[in-house]
Amino acid sequence: MKARVYVTFKPSVLDPQGQTIRAALNGLGHKGIEEVRQGKFFEVTYNETEDLDAISRDVLSNPVIEDYRIEIL
Predict the structure, then answer these.
(1) DSSP label of 48
(2) CB 40 within 8 A of CB 4
């Protein structure tokens, strides 16, 4: 099976890379961009016996500052 795990900062956590991207976009003339939040995703091929939720929570993300969501492909 395949899945994508998307990991992003929680809304309460500052995202300096996202702020830099937003500033660069504004500097390039894209003045309508108000906020950019960056994240990462993992494409995982796995066996059905694996607990993808536990792997995402314990290994792929930092639950203190990040949220994740799983998309089964």
Answers:
(1) T
(2) no
Q: How many CB atoms lie within 10 A of CB 1?
A: 11
Q: Which domains does the chain have, with CATH numbers?
A: 2-72 (3.30.1280.10)
pLDDT in tens, the chain (73 residues): 999 999 999 999 999 999 999 999 999 999 999 999 999 999 999 999 999 999 999 999 999 999 999 999 9
User: What pTM was estimated for this model as a whole?
Assistant: 0.83
Rg (Cα) of the chain, in Å, rounded?
Answer: 15
Can you count the helices (H) and strands (E) in the chain?
A: 2, 3
CB burial readout 29-49, b (16+ within 10 A) else e: eeeeeeeeeeeeebebeeeee
